[in-house]
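During the reporting period, we have paired protein sequences with backbone structure tokens. One record among many follows, to show the layout:
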Amino acid sequence: NEAFASVVLAWQLELGVPLERVNVNGGAIALGHPLGASGTRLMATLLHELERTGGRYGLQTMCIGHGMATATIIERLDPAR
């Protein structure tokens, strides 16, 4: 969520995560989403990006208000295995 972009920047600086690996297609507001559908929109984008790039793991994080957040890690399984 762009309203909390400063949190992402502080996290990135603290952990040294390359910004090109964070919100590679933009955040929820940049992607466009109806109110209340951020999680679904972000997950659908993450799944498509894993398929497009052949990535194995994806991390979705999201502010849910009142100082809380969620984090979901997914693994893309290779159907050939």
